[in-house]
Every structure is written in structure tokens, then in C-alpha cells.
Amino acid sequence: MSVERIEYTSWEGQKSSRLRRIYAIVKKIFRDKLSSKGILLLLIIGMMITHVLPIIGNSVVPHEALTSEMMVKTIPGGGGYLTSGLFILFSLLFASVVCSDLISRDLQDNSFVLYFSRPIRTEDYLLGKLGGAFTVMSLFCFLPPIAFSLAVIATQTGGDYIVSLRVLGDTLIVGIFTTFILTSFGVMISCLTKKTSYAGVGAFASFFVLSVVGGVFSGFDPNWQVIDPFNLLNYSYDLIYGFDLPSEVSPILFSFALLSILAIPTTVLYYRVYRRSAGK
Amino acid sequence: MNENFTKFTALVRYSIRRILLSKKIVFLLVGLGFTVAVMGYASTQDVEKLWVGAGLMSGLIISFMVPITTMIYGSTIIQDDIEDRSITQIISSPIDRVLSYLGYYLAIVICLSAMLMAITTAGFISFFGPLGIDSASLSIYIDITALVFIGTLVYSSLFMLVSLMTSKAVYFGLFYAFIWEGFVGSLPGNIQKVAISHYIKSISSSWIEYISLDNASGLMLSFYILFALIVSLISFGCLLFRTKEFP
Amino acid sequence: MMDIKQEKDRGDNVPLIEANDLSKWYGEVIGLNSFNVEISSGITGIVGPNGAGKSTFFKIAIGLIKPNSGALKVMGEDPWLNLKLAARVGFCPDYDNLSNDSTGERFLKLIGGLHGMSGNSLTKRVEEVTEIVGLENEIHRNIGGYSMGMRQKIKLAGSILPNSDLLFLDEPLSGTDPKSRKSLIEVIKSLYEEQGHDVVVSSHVLPEIEKMTSRVVLIYKGRRIASGEISEIRELIDKYPHQIIIEGSEMSELAKGLLDIESTISVGFEDDRNRIKVEVSNLDDFFGALPEVVVNKNIEIESMYSVDEGLEAVFKYLVEE
Fold first, then answer.
1. Which residue has the higher pLDDT, B150 or A18?
2. Inter-chain touch A93–B178, beta carbons under 8 Å
3. Spatial contact of B19 and B107, defined as CB atoms under 8 Å apart
């Protein structure tokens, strides 16, 4: 009996159901995270402290319209709803908890073999992971600020809804911006280690280390403020809502820092996952 | 008695070895580099040496490095043994569980005190070295070192206890170290007295004239509270460890 | 080498291990379900499929977990928080609890240290046990470089190091190659025959246990379903016909021929006409006669296997009984 050689030719067709593959990953992450008691508990506690109280407080107090000051500057030099410190702090904690195991668990369990033995590309894997994390993170970072804005608009006494809606539009941008930065940062940390606990601590601690460094050095030169991620986010919110940067901060350095926090996490993430999927 | 001492020291030596060989040492090395860099940079600025030096060492090391490091190690020393199942050989051995728990605690305190004191020393030298080390700066160094040891004792006892109560102790540690201590501990009024950092800062403000704290508690009161806290946390930890099952 | 231990200081009538209505559950999952057993001195095998409750039983016996109800006595004492008993019992778990960064020697010295041993006597004992298990040349290497068989051996060495009266060995042969398995079986037998340790060893493979001991306890879904000599248990199984599946061409012709074999009880076709199921009363007689039938009828057999030789089938019969 002779052996018939199999003639191999590479397939050059289009991969189908790409979106469905990405959706499968997103759906799994969303379901897994929301079935975790710890995450739900953190979400509830964070919501109560960070969002529910301000929503009730600002809705009940008589107000003409939804203003930018409400969102970022309640008192001169002070913090508004988004810049009081609690919003970013809890968002960061939430990101650490939600994102820490997304890729570190796959590294630990060698699940890359499972994922990439299927017709799924590195980009699709990342889109799925980021999409899932983004969806969960938006429950804290995106939807509540929108709810705050809508609640304040619904209870305003003035008739100028155009201003309020403009602020609502800015809030949409802030929500997406915050969710994107924290999600990509958290997932980047997750891809750097196999231990989920290290990833959780790392995401949180690195923000604080940068904050401490920024705080200490800004005593000598105020431009060091931009390396503090809390300041970076707060100043970004100020800009989105139409306020200016503090005069002592260089716009060029601020832009550079902002670009870094937007670009570096996704670049590192892509490079790291690409190398793992290529078998290195 | 001799046999119990042998068992206890075997466990302590084993735990110390695991701590020193663990990849978590990277956090400490990063912390060391970070402290040296910040304090070294600060020394190049035109500053009031003793005030800034004491403030930096207190802020960077006592308020930041000590809680974070003890959180990272204290939350995981027993959990790591449970996860990789090496706890079996300890629990199935004829060593009293209370002794085992104390052995873990001693190992953590020895390692972290040594490592944090190394960081303190490196920070001290990088700041005061170029500016001149005198008796006043040495006095600050000794006081900070003592505070590092006190902080290690109390935070380790807390995080080890939490690690027995939940497998996600690291997340509780993050919440406590950053949000509770950082946020509540810095609020004005008596509310800050529910944070451990308040009592450590009260002791530091008593010992070091270049550190001040509004609404500081008395020196002896702070000591009593921290001592009582350490004893109760360790006692409760021993009780939990004794009754815990390891499936 | 140690001398064989003399009469155990336990009293003649006290069983080595006694479980009465022992139950343990993990949430909704039942580990042990009113488990009753008496185990006496010697080597005893605990046999059951995966998830039967063997490891749960061992963990209660070692004092790692507590039962939810019922009682377990090991050498007359409750194992929970019992340091005196812990000093007399050794445990070799089924899972890997070894640190890859440690050498075999360091691992054994840790165990010795935790049992209060130190100095030259510990070093000497480490050498003794590594010689018993056959690892004397490997103890200075990192455990991370050990093969599966060597890892099992070092765990076994750890369990006998403190010179325990009783050893619990949970699936000591799992994951090992045939050569390692053979040497481990010899070591385990020598632990009782030459060293005098009582041994309770678990496995899900009955033939492996057969090579070590003739006394077994069968456990299934947390319950003891049979205990005693292996020969007695085998007889229970032989009451039931054995079922064999044969696949190939011309199965109808083969079926006619098989019906002439005395030990054949019945022959039936499966869904596929190229597959038949044969029920036989005596396997040896059947397999003795089968080749002649196959050759005479010029049949091509593609595959043949027994559907009830495994432990699952044994348990199925015993449980149904």
C-alpha cells in the first residue's frame, strides 16, 4: 500500500466571524467579572461613596443648570465631582481588581496556546480583552458620570439646556477618556507578570509611586506635577471642560505626559502579547 | 522545650529563605532605587537640610514604603504557602500552629526590618551624604530606623491576619494602605485616629523636632495603642490559624 | 537500616484507623458520606475512582481538615490539632508540594527540623531515607530538575524521615513511568516488611494496589462499598458476566463461531453491523478459544476491548448490588 503525499497549499481566504470571536471574549470577561462577589462589592461600595452621594447632593441642591464647575471645580482651587480625588482613586482600585488577571492568568495557565491555536489574531485577542475590561470599567468610570449629569439636568431650575447638554457631551468624553486610560494601564500591568496579585498591586502602586515622586519633586519645580497621574487626569478634565492648565505647568510637558499615558500602555501591551503569541 | 525551639527555628529559616528568594524582591529593589533617586535629587536642591530630610524620610519611607512593603509580603507569606501547597508539610508536622504562625511573623519582621533599614540607610546617605552628616541628622536616622521597625511590627501583624481571612488579602491591603491610611489618615480632626499611620506619625513628631503633626496623640498613648494592636492582631491571627482548615 | 518494629503500643484490640459515620462536604460537594472503616496493621490499599473521597479521608486523618460529622480515630486518637499523633504519622500527598528552588536535602532537612530533629542525627537520617528510596545520588540537586518518579520518591522520603509509625501515601504512583512505578512499589512494600511502618496507600488503579497488598478498602462517592481481601472482591465481580466489544468485518460470521465457545453467554450487534458485544462468564476460557474461531473463519478483527474491566465497572456492579 503506497502512501499518498498530501499537497499542502496555504489558505488565502478571509477569516470570517471576526467580530463574533472578539465578542465571545468580551462577553466572557463581562460575565466573569460581574459574577465575582469581590468586584460587585467593590463596585457597590465605590458607587455609594463616589457617585451616589454626589448625585443625590447635587440633584437636591437647587441649581440653574449643569455646569463645568460642578464637575471639576466646586470651589476655587478645590475639587468638583470628578476631581475630589475619590473618583480617580476608586476607579484606579477598580481597574486594578478588574484588569489584573486578564492577561496574567493567560500567561500563568499558558492559555495563549489555546487562544492562538484558533484562527484569532493578536489584534483580535487584544481587542477582546480590552473591550471586555472597557465594558466592565465603564460601569464605574463612564455610566455614573453620565447618570450624574442627567440627574442634575433633570432637576435643574433654569431653562438653558444647551449649556447643560454641552457639559453632558464633555462628560461623555471624560468618561471614555478615563475608562480608556485606566483600562489600558491596568491591562498593560497584567501582561507584565504571571501573578495576578502582583499585577493588581503593580497597577495601583505604580500610580502612587508616580504620584509621590511628582509630589516630592514638584516642591522643587512645579513642572514635575505632570508625572503625577492624578494631576494629569485632573488637568485633562479641566481642559475638556474648558478650563486652563495651571500657569506654572508647561503645556508642552503636559502634552508629552498625556501622550505617554495614552500611547505607552497600548504599545507595551501589543508588543508583549505579540511576542507571546509568536511563541517567544 | 529544646525540640520546640528546633521546630520553630526550622520554620523561621524556611520562611526567611522563601521571602528572600521570592520574585517580590523586585518591589524592594525598585523601592530602594526610587528612594535613593528622590532623596538624591532633593539633596541637590537648596533646602533646609534637617527639615526636608526628616520630612522626606518620614513621607517616603514611613508613610509609603513601610505600609506597601509589609502589605505585599504580609498578605502573601501564608497565602503563597497555601497556594503552592507547601503549607501541608508545616500543618502535618508536630509543631503547634500558634508557634507556626509566630514563626511566619518573626520571619517577615526580620526580613522586612532588614530590607527597609537598608532602604532607610541608602536614602539617608543619598540625602545627607552630600550635605554633611552630623549628630542631628544621625539622630533623625536612628529615630526613623526605630519607626521603620515599629511600623513593620504593626503592619505585618495586620496584613498577616487579613491574609488568613481572605485569599484576596492583597486587594484589602491596597485599599487599606492607599485609601484608608492615605485618605482617612490625612483628614483633619479625630477621624485620623482610626488609622495606624496617625500613631506612628505621633511618635515621629514627638521624637523628631523637624516633623510636626496637627492633633497628634501623646507619645505613651501612641505606644500603648500600637502595642495593644500588635498583640491583639497577632493573638487573633494565632487563633484563626489554629482553627483554619487546609483542604 | 531499622529493625522491624515490634508490637505497637496500642493495645491488641484497638484498630489502627477507625472511622464511624465520617462525613465531610465542601459546600454542595460531598467528599465523604457516612464513611465507616476499620483498618488494622500492615499495608492497606484505599481504592476508588477520582473524586471518590480518598484524599479527603487522608486529609482528615492527617489533621489538615475536620469532618463535618462522625469521628475518625487514628491509633486511638483524634487527629485534629493532635501534635503527639502528628509526630507518629507521615504523609505523602498526591499533589506536588515541593519547592523547585530547594534541593532534596534541604527539603528533607526542613521536614526533619519541623519534627524537632537537628544536627548530625538529622543528617544521618536524611542519608538513610534517601538510600531507602534510592535517591542518594540526587539529593544535592534542585528539586526543579527531578523527574516525576524522583519527585514522588523525595515526597516518600519526607514521609518516612521522622520514623513515623504510620504512613499515609496518597496516590504515590500517579504520573510515574513503569520503571519508576515498579521501584516505588518495591520501596512501599519494604516500608512495612523491612522497616516496620504501617502503610495506608491510595490509588485508583486496582492492579497497582494488588502488587503491594492483598487488603483493600473500596471507596465510591464518599462511601465504603467493600473491604477485605482482593480475592474476595474479585469474586464479587466475577458473578457478573464480562462484556467485550469486537470490531471488524464479517462480524455475523464471528458471532456464530463465538456462540460455540462454552463461556459465551450471549452475542449481540451494536448499532454498527461491524461491531458486536459479547457477554462471557469466564475471560480466560473465552480468550483461550477465540483465536481458533478467528483463524478458522478467516475473520479480520480491527479492535477488541473490554467495557467492564476498569474500576468504574467494578464499582458500578458493587454499588448496584
1. B150
2. yes
3. yes
In 3D space, the residue among C92, C105, C100, C55 whose CA is nearest the CA of residue C176 turns out to be C92
3-state helix, strand, coil in chain A (%, to 5): 70, 0, 30
B214 has a chain C CB within 8 A of its CB: no
Chain A residues with CB-CB distance to B171 below 8 A: 38, 42, 93, 96-97, 200
Q: pTM (2 decimals)? A: 0.83
Nearest to C97 among B11, B89, B242 (CB): B89
Cell numbers at residue C153, please?
A: 520518591
Residue A186 structural domain: 18-277
Residue with cell string 497600548:
A266
Please give the DSSP secondary-structure letter assigned to residue C246: E
Counting CB pairs under 8 A, whether chains C and A reach 3 or more, is no
Sheet holding C242-248, edge to edge: C264-269, C275-280, C242-248, C301-306
Whether the predicted pLDDT of C58 surpasses 90: yes
Distance CA C208, CA C173 (A): 8
Does residue C26 belong to the interface with chain B, where contact is any CB pair within 8 Å? yes
CB contacts of A201 in chain B (<8 Å) are 27, 71-72, 170, 173-174
Cβ separation A216–B170 shorter than 8 A: no
Task: Give me the interface pTM, i.e. the ipTM.
Answer: 0.89
Cell of B36: 535613593
Using the beta-carbon criterion (under 8 Å), do A220 and B42 form an inter-chain contact? Answer: yes
Tell me the C-alpha distance between C289 and C293, whole Å: 7
Measured in residues, chain A has a length of 280
Q: A2 in a domain, yes or no?
A: no
pLDDT at C12 over 70: no
pLDDT at position A110 is: 84
- Give the chain C residue whose CA is nearest to the CA of B100: C114
Domain count, chain A: 1
- In this complex, do B94 and C84 lie within 8 Å of one another by their Cβ atoms? yes
Parse chain B into domains and list their residue ranges. Answer: 2-243
A153-185 pLDDT, tens per residue? Answer: 999 998 989 999 999 999 999 999 999 999 999
Does A8 fall in a domain?
Answer: no
